[in-house]
Design a protein that fits this description.
Largest sheet of chain A: 6 strands, mixed
Order of helices and strands of chain A: HHHHHHHHHHEEEHEEHEHHHHEHEHEEHH
Helix content of chain B: 55-70%
Strand order of the largest sheet of chain A: 6-7-8-3-9-10
Strand order of the largest sheet of chain B: 6-7-8-3-9-10
Order of helices and strands of chain B: HHHHHHHHHHEEEHEEHEHHHHEHEHEEHH
CATH class of the largest domain in chain B: Mainly Alpha
Number of helices of chain A: 20
CATH topology of the largest domain in chain B: ABC transporter transmembrane region fold
Strand content of chain B: 5-15%
Distance between the termini of chain A: 69 Å
CATH class of the domain at 358-601 in chain A: Alpha Beta
CATH superfamily of the domain at 358-601 in chain A: P-loop containing nucleotide triphosphate hydrolases
Structural class of chain A: alpha/beta
Shape of chain A: elongated
Oligomer: heterodimer
Strand content of chain A: 5-15%
Radius of gyration of chain A: 37 Å
CATH architecture of the largest domain in chain B: Up-down Bundle
Largest interface: A-B, 140 and 141 residues
CATH topology of the domain at 358-601 in chain A: Rossmann fold
Helix content of chain A: 55-70%
Structural class of chain B: alpha/beta
Shape of chain B: elongated
CATH architecture of the domain at 358-601 in chain A: 3-Layer(aba) Sandwich
Number of domains of chain B: 2
Chain lengths: 603, 599
């Protein structure tokens, strides 16, 4: 669909990619009024700046240096032009200020728009995408790539537009003054462009070299600081110092070559300016001798030439910013063009009141087309019943949960809730009907209450009632300020058990028809465990529940136990049935018991 | 912009005052002295550039005057053009020279200070790193250092250039007309003040943009990293709304920066133009009144142009220098903060044993001691240490490893007071496995051989086998050459711990301190590892901190710590009988009911 040659590192954006510019412009469309104002202000400022020298010239020619008028008239005229000059100067000041702020506002707003779009797009992508793409790279898209583009928008477009306008304006004035001389001067434009391009490319290379060395240096330093005691205990100081100094030296050398590069290129624009002046003096002077040019014109030529090289120099510095911004733009649009691999239903079925009958019908699945993780699983959980999944790591328990939540689509077979294929249900509606408690918890940097309520809009009272009813108020009371305790980074640290309790509270607050629990494998403190046990007992009652179970107490509570191995359900039944059958389940239990038995016997 | 303004204004509140400027500059003065020739050449080139630049208008004036008088010839013009070109070429070369000399010098100085900081922190004790977090030190080495570099590079240049140009231009102007000069310069101090005020504020606002940016980055990262949870809880819209709010704040902080940028350059233009206006009106009057000549008037205008940039530069330089000094002060504080561990040169070979006599220790951050009156002999054999979180087990290990200071007469190594012998003579006798295993971004081989880089392949593998990590390593893509750490393969917590153990075993030092070093490894494996090491360890002095009864039961002697005191000690069997804490722990761990099907 798109043929952008996508590479992460060292991709140089093409400044002349019109399709890309077009897409950027689409985002700007809603700011077209503001944009036209900005352009208008730009023209105003540039125009006025070019008028100033002319005004000065007129003043000199007409009043200061015209002995024909009486001194009083001359001074009068001086004041008149002077006040115009003053007005213009203040006008330029005000217009420039508004132009800068306006453009920044537009640029930032457009980027905000793109960023929001990317963020919600990224969240809509499905898990197969996230598995295939490292998170760090996605974060870079949303932050650094956007920042790159913003930089182009605000600092570059403003100046580039102004600079180009100024250069064009000056060229027009020069041609009006003297065509031949102006033609001669225009030789400098391609020359300057060439120098600019060369410099931009070389500078970018060096910049990258410096950056990567700095990153190396910093990560070495960071490691050294955080592992300092180990370095000291193992007597590595001298060695580390040597490594650091050689890295630091390399960083300095790379910086030095940048200094040299800048040293060569930066003065070049001035050299060109001076050469232009010399050329004007020699050729223009000759024209004066040949009476083709007036002295005043020559002086004007020289002063305009000075204005001409300033923007050229600016442009050369901005060029590389535009390049990297275009590369960022490509990556951004590439992300925006990425489509989900799991198709959304075209016309989602509206879920009626969910009763909660779950059915897996001949479901098979593999993550990477190589290893089959689920093989032909058929399973029916009647509404209101609790089923427990047990099995060793890699037997497919968690995958079953992943499919039920439609994080992944089954390779073959269907999964239904109350007889409706979950592929036909809107994903949000599905995930609201199926409440999950996963092993790890996402904690917002906020109060416990806010962490429980999140976006459900429940009141504090409802939460308190739920906590009271499920015995979880004991958990709340343990925290220093109850429901108002701040948790997350910088707040109260929650233990593994408390995190599971929070996840429980969250789900209960949403009152889902189906409950899926992935029990924590890590040991949790006894007190949390007691509370958790009651909460589990309470919330499983009359609710369809599927538990990836690790605790005997939970397993015993289940109406049915499913033992999984190698992606199949190999045994099912109640705890007692399965023990009596003496199969895999009995073996698992016996193994565990014998282990603790050995421990008991040992001392 | 990326270099100068992006450094956040962190720590600006905590600028230590009272360090004299002399002592501060004493930090950099030797570097200046060492490179005096370089600086001199740079400064001379810079001044020559300025002088030569003043020459070009004069050559031009001669040409124009000759043209006006009609005495010019194409040949003479060519000569003048040639002179201009020649001067321009000289300027070009000299500019290259001063850049290379002075900016190059600032880079050299940056390197010298950086290396000095690193050499300094290598000598610091654990207390230092509690006071200065990793982030702090990193900030010193990056932001503060670059502020100093900017001040001594571009700052030096701009200051010199600006003052020279100002004086030169002012001199020429004064020669033409004193009153007019004063009038024309009237707005200039205003520009300097404005630039100073605005660029200081700009710096602050940039810092807040930076802060917003990192908030947004962190938000994005934490969201995307747990995208499965976000989706499971259908929090997509909720998070998008929050992100929107963050984004808006970011836009606002950017606009605050833009407001200043929108003022700064237009103000420069404004002041320049106002000066020009004064010259036009009052200078024009002077011309009309025939008090100055027309040529003087035109020259005056060009001199005024010359002064705009230096005036802006003065405000800018003032900020640069101030920021540089503030940063230098912070670096100075870092470099002068000493280690509280006395280190003498006397290398001693002593018996690998510790004796503790009424040893007490407290962290400076808190008043309550973490170790109280501990009297203890630690000789050959395996010693176990148990106790609740915060009972002082880790602190004991760290004090023994000489990471923290102790008072005289409390800790003896091989019969000698540790404060009287070098740190290295104690540390080089210790193999240490900490709670948090540290791995460095390097190959697995190098990580294990950290303490003995010269170790042979067989020795390394033997150590890995003893720590039960060999098999794990073989499953990695490049075996022992696999890169680990930040950019390499991520090892699990248990693997990292076993690697840290292998590292200590390879050193084969007479003392081994294991501070809860295998907590992420399951009980059975831990037991196996130590059972395998038993013979090897029996001859050494070993201290094992753990709360795992199974491991403790293998030790010869167990200490129970409570609030920094030894409350009980003895063999495993005795403690099971006599100590209630140990007994409870024993009961709990031995009669676990947990149905751990997964391993």
């Amino acid at each position: 669909m798109n043929d952008f040659g996508y590479t992460e590192e060292g991709k140089i954006g093409s400044v002349g990619d019109f399709r890309l510019w077009g897409r950027i412009l689409i985002f700007c469309a809603s700011y077209r009024v503001a944009l036209s104002w900005a352009v208008f202000l730009s023209i105003l400022v540039t125009g006025a700046s070019l008028v100033l020298p002319a005004l000065m010239q007129t003043c000199i020619d007409r009043y200061i240096a015209s002995p024909a008028l009486s001194p009083l008239q001359r001074i009068d005229g001086l004041w008149r032009i002077g006040s115009w000059y003053g007005l213009l100067v203040i006008g330029i000041f005000i217009a420039s200020f508004f132009q800068v702020v306006l453009l920044e506002w537009i640029g930032q707003s457009v980027m905000h728009l793109i960023r929001q779009k990317m963020f919600s797009h990224a969240l809509e992508l499905d898990l197969p995408y996230f598995n295939a793409h490292p998170t760090g790279r996605l974060v870079t898209r949303l932050t650094n790539d956007i920042a790159n583009m913003t930089e182009m928008f605000t600092s570059v477009i403003v100046t580039v537009f102004n600079d180009l306008l100024q250069i064009a304006g000056i060229m027009v004035v020069l041609f009006m003054l003297n065509g031949k001389l102006a033609l001669l001067m225009s030789v400098f434009v391609p020359l300057a462009a060439l120098v600019t391009l060369l410099f931009a490319n070389l500078a970018r290379e060096q910049f990258r070299a410096i950056r990567s060395q700095l990153a190396k240096l910093n990560s070495f330093l960071q490691e050294a600081i955080s592992g300092m005691s180990i370095l000291q205990l193992f007597g590595r100081q001298e060695r580390s110092r040597m490594v650091f100094e050689s890295m630091s030296g390399e960083y300095m050398r790379r910086n030095m070559s940048q200094v040299r590069l800048f040293g060569v290129f930066m003065p070049l624009t001035d050299l060109m300016g001076s050469s232009a002046t010399a050329l004007i003096l020699w050729y223009g002077g000759g024209e004066i001798i040949r009476h083709e040019l007036s002295l005043g014109q020559l002086v004007a030529f020289i002063s305009y030439m000075r204005l001409f090289f300033q923007p050229l120099r600016e442009l050369s510095q901005k060029y590389s910013i535009v390049q990297s911004a275009m590369a960022s733009a490509e990556r951004i649009f590439e992300l925006l063009d990425t489509e989900r691999t799991i198709a959304l239903p075209a016309v989602p079925v509206i879920l009626p009141q969910v009763k909660g009958e779950l059915c897996f019908d001949r479901v098979s699945f593999s993550y990477d087309a190589e290893k089959q993780v689920l093989r032909d699983i058929s399973l029916r959980v009647p509404a209101g019943k609790t089923y427990a999944l047990v099995g060793t790591t890699g037997s497919g328990k968690t995958t079953l949960v992943n499919l039920l939540l439609r994080f992944y689509a089954p390779g073959s077979g269907t999964i239904t809730i109350d007889g409706i294929d979950i592929a036909e249900i809107d994903q949000e509606a599905l995930r609201q009907a199926v409440g999950v408690i996963l092993q790890d918890v996402f904690i917002l940097q906020d109060s416990l209450l806010a962490n429980i309520i999140m976006d459900t809009g429940s009141s504090r009272k409802t939460v308190e009632e739920i906590m009271e009813k499920t015995g979880m108020s004991r958990f709340v009371e343990r925290l220093p300020s109850g429901l108002d305790t701040l948790i997350g980074e910088g707040g109260q640290e929650l233990s593994t058990g408390e995190k599971q309790l929070l996840a429980f509270a969250r789900v209960l607050c949403r009152n889902p028809a189906v409950l899926v629990l992935d029990e924590a494998t890590a040991a949790i403190d006894t007190e949390s465990e007691n509370i958790l046990e009651q909460a589990i007992a309470d919330s499983f009652r009359n609710r369809t529940s599927l538990v990836v179970a690790h605790r005997l107490s939970t397993i015993r509570r289940a109406d049915r136990i499913l033992v999984m191995a190698g992606g199949r359900i190999i045994e099912q039944g109640t705890h007692d049935d399965l023990l009596a059958a003496g199969g895999q389940y009995a073996e698992l239990v016996a193994m565990d018991l014998s282990q603790s038995g050995e421990q008991e016997a040992k001392p | 912009m990326k270099n100068s303004d992006s450094s956040p204004a962190r720590g600006q509140k905590t600028v230590p005052v009272g360090v004299g400027l002399n002592r501060l500059l004493g930090l950099v003065a030797p570097v200046f002295r060492q490179y005096w020739l370089r600086i001199l050449v740079g400064c001379l080139s810079l001044l020559s550039v300025d002088l030569l630049q003043l020459l070009i208008p004069r050559v031009l004036k001669r040409g124009v005057d000759a043209l006006a008088a009609g005495t010019s010839s194409p040949h003479a013009l060519l000569g003048l053009a040639g002179i201009i070109l020649l001067v321009a070429l000289c300027v070009n070369c000299l500019r290259f020279v001063w850049r290379l000399m002075i900016i190059g010098f600032s880079r050299i100085m940056e390197r010298i200070i950086r290396d000095r900081i690193f050499a300094h922190i290598l000598k610091m004790d654990a207390l230092f790193f509690e006071k200065h977090t990793t982030g702090d030190v990193m900030a010193h080495v990056s932001n503060d250092l670059s502020a100093v570099q900017m001040a001594s590079g571009m700052g030096l240049i701009a200051a010199m250039d600006a003052s020279f140009m100002t004086f030169a231009a002012m001199g020429f102007m004064l020669k033409i007309n004193v009153l007019l000069t004063l009038l024309a310069l009237l707005p200039m101090p205003f520009l300097a003040v404005c630039t100073r005020v605005l660029s200081a504020r700009l710096h602050q606002r940039f810092a807040s943009v930076q802060e917003q940016f990192s908030l947004m980055t962190e938000f994005t990262r934490s969201t995307l990293i747990s995208v499965r949870l976000i989706k499971a809880y259908t929090m997509e819209k909720f998070r998008t709304r929050e992100f929107d709010a963050l984004g808006r704040k970011y836009v606002r902080s950017n606009l605050r920066v833009a407001a200043i940028q929108g003022l700064m350059f237009p103000i420069a233009t404004l002041t320049g133009n106002i000066g020009m206006l004064f010259v036009l009106i009052f200078g024009g009057r002077l011309v009309i009144q025939s008090r100055i000549s027309m040529g003087d008037f035109v020259a005056f205008i060009s001199y005024l142009y010359m002064m705009i940039w230096p005036m802006m530069a003065i405000g800018w330089v003032a900020n640069l220098v101030q920021r540089g000094l503030t940063s230098l002060r912070r670096i100075h504080t870092l470099l002068t903060s000493g280690s509280s561990l006395p280190d003498t040169a006397s290398e001693t070979k002593a018996d690998p044993s510790f004796s503790l006599r009424f040893l007490s220790f407290s962290y400076p951050s808190s008043t309550a001691p973490v170790l109280r009156d501990i009297t203890l002999e630690i000789g050959p054999g395996i010693h176990g240490v148990a106790g609740r979180t915060g009972s002082g087990k880790s602190s004991l290990c760290k004090v023994l490893a000489r990471l923290y200071p102790v008072d005289d007469g409390q800790l003896f190594f091989g019969g000698l007071d540790v404060n009287g012998i070098s740190l290295n003579s104690v540390r080089s006798a210790i193999g240490y496995v900490g709670q948090e295993p540290i791995v460095f971004s390097d190959s697995i081989r190098a990580n294990i051989a950290l303490g003995r880089p010269e170790a042979s392949r067989e020795e390394i593998e033997a150590a890995a086998r003893s720590a039960a990590i060999h098999e794990d390593i073989l499953t990695l893509p490049a075996g022992y050459d696999t890169l680990i750490g930040e950019r390499g393969v991520k090892l699990s917590g248990g693997q990292r711990q076993r690697l840290a153990l292998a590292r200590a075993l390879l050193c084969d030092r007479p003392i081994l301190l294991v501070d809860d070093g295998l907590s992420a490894v399951d009980v059975a494996t831990e037991h196996e590892i130590f059972a395998g090491l038993r013979n090897q360890l029996q001859k050494k002095t070993v201290v094992i901190v753990s709360n795992r009864v199974k491991l403790l039961s293998m030790t010869d002697h167990i200490l129970i710590l409570e609030e920094g005191r030894i409350v009980s000690d003895g063999t495993h069997d005795r403690l099971v009988q006599e100590n209630s804490f140990y007994r409870t722990m024993y009961d709990k761990q031995m009669h676990q009911e947990d149905f751990q099907v997964t391993s």
